Amino acid sequence: MANDAPTTSDARRGGMARLRREWALRPERNIQILIGIVAALLFVSPALAVIIGAFRTSPFTEGPQAGVWSLQPVIDVFTSPETWGTLWNTVLLTVASVIPATILAVFFATLVTRTNVLAKWLITGTMAILVALPPLFYALSWSMLGNETVGLINVWLRGISSGFAEGYLWGQGPLNIESWGGLILVSIFRATAFMFLILIGPFSTMDRSLEEAARVSGAGPIRTFFGTQIPVLMPAISAVVVISTVASMEAFDVPVVLGVPADIYVLPTEVYRYLNDARNPFYGHASAVSILLLVILVGLLVIERRLQGRRRFTTVTGKGARQGEWSLGRWRLPLFAFSLVYAVIAVLLPLLQLLLVSFSPYFGWNPTDWSMILDPQAGLTTKWFETILSSQQSVNTFLQTAAVAALAAVLGMVAVIVILWAVKLRRGRLGTLLDGSQMLPMVVPGLLLALGIITVVLIGPWKSLYGSSLLLMAALFIAVVPLASRTIAGAIVQIPAELEEATRVSGGSRARALFAVVFRLLLPSALNGWLLCFVVASGTLAIPMLLGERRAPMLAIKVYDDYLAGNFSLAAASFVLFVVEILLIAVVIEILKRLLTRRTKRRKLVLATSADADWTGAVRVRPTRHLPRKLDVEPTVDA
């Protein structure tokens, strides 16, 4: 008698068949699941590794230095008064910088979008430069500018107060940038620029109908602004404040340059202090401090997402929206003067100090008369640039930094485009989680991200990657993903789904629609986003500090080492060369964008002129207007 019971192989084949049917019936959901798994491995695993690492005395190494599972690192950190003192410093720095920065950002955004202030480009350009400058180089420029002995600010202040009497060049003070005041001041400048560039969008789309109604009711301009404009924009302002708070709490470059010399430690620099211990790095203690920082940052990110979800209901505008400018009257010139002074202090003076140091024979050189400037022996010199360009090691540092940062920026832009494209395929909880996954690296500061990647590498079979450029590039790629998302999210939403559907109807696959439609249309925006990600990846300090090689360091590590060694002129010259490199790349990108625009216009022209005049399909041809050969009616002249 034959056995008709199903066997194990039959059940396995049946299960595979059901999986194939599920895949065929729900391709959008399956694509989102696959991309979500990859995103979790890239963005979630480092944070989990940091948490796991807090319960080991050292990473997962072998031999006599191998760590053991223990609660001691967590106990030591959370019972240490230094931890809570560092947390207080972090909160104090964040509050003291974010609140004034919010007021300044709202003030400047109002000036640019709602008033007739002079030279609006000056304000926008100042903020753009502040955001584009890597925080390490900006902090170093202020460290030189506010040097207590030879910084330009102190030299000028001493000269003015003493009537430029003899000896004013080498005195002390009166300002010291390596202090709480200097740390807060520099943090305010960067936070203001960051918040301004985000707020300028909501402020520019604000409808003036509420303002006009308040003015008709008898309210003055100040009461109208605070009674109608600010309440309507408060969800957008609140979300930006939360994002700026997150950025302030995870900042490392400015506190390590200006705070550590003054014995001011915040949570990121406290993590670095544990890892940089000369006797033995305390990885478990660093991870325990990181847990405290992670909890705070994740809570702030949850608040930001809720505020961002409400923001879409705050302002509704359309073609009929009334958007006019306020006339400043007699305040127009004073407000322009204030904007000019702000630009000089925040941007011009630091850059002037860097230029002066890079061309000076030594740090602290200040000419007593104009004849010294062109003196071949004691005047301005280019020897620091010659030293850098004649050193093969220095040239290799620039080339390696450019290569690693460029690849990391490319991977970041591609990953964000794929993730956002997958989110558009199918709306739902899975798409929402996928959309939020790309913002997770924003709450993992650079040091924590590097520490988590080290733990992941040492746990798995990838130990040979430790200390390689590939691992460093992967970490930088993960770090720039939130920034890439901010630059490309608005553009990808504007791509209509009908274009992809047309490709599918023509026989193309989803992959072909992604590359032929989405990537091609996003290329101009992606080039701008790539440049910004390239600048950030090239100038960041925290990640290369743990994952980079000291024998072949990234540019930020080399500049920081030169600064610590007292080679200020070399550090300044490296920054000037970096700025020249960025400007050249920006010019190349602008040329590429113009070529792409011209090529797109040429294709449209060819398509339009080659179409049949009688065809009434998708291609629309403008009718040609012909002039009559002769007039049907003779013209008459009135008497």
Count of helical stretches: 24
Biggest sheet statistics: none
Q: What structural class do you assign from the helix and strand content?
A: mainly alpha
Radius of gyration: 30 Å
Overall shape:
globular
Low-confidence stretches: 311-322, 605-639
Mean pLDDT, as a whole number?
Answer: 77
- The residue fraction in helices comes out at 55-70%
Give the strand tally. 0
Describe this structure in words.
This protein is mostly helical and 639 residues long. The chain is 69% helix and 0% strand. The chain has 24 helices and no strands. α2 packs across α17, α4 packs across α10 and α16 packs across α19. The protein is globular. It starts with 7 loop residues before the first helix and ends in a 30-residue tail after the last helix.
Layout of helices and strands:
Blueprint lengths: L7 H18 L1 H27 L18 H7 L2 H34 L5 H13 L2 H11 L6 H11 L17 H25 L4 H8 L4 H29 L3 H7 L7 H9 L7 H29 L20 H28 L23 H8 L1 H34 L3 H9 L8 H14 L9 H25 L3 H9 L4 H30 L2 H6 L7 H10 L3 H42 L30
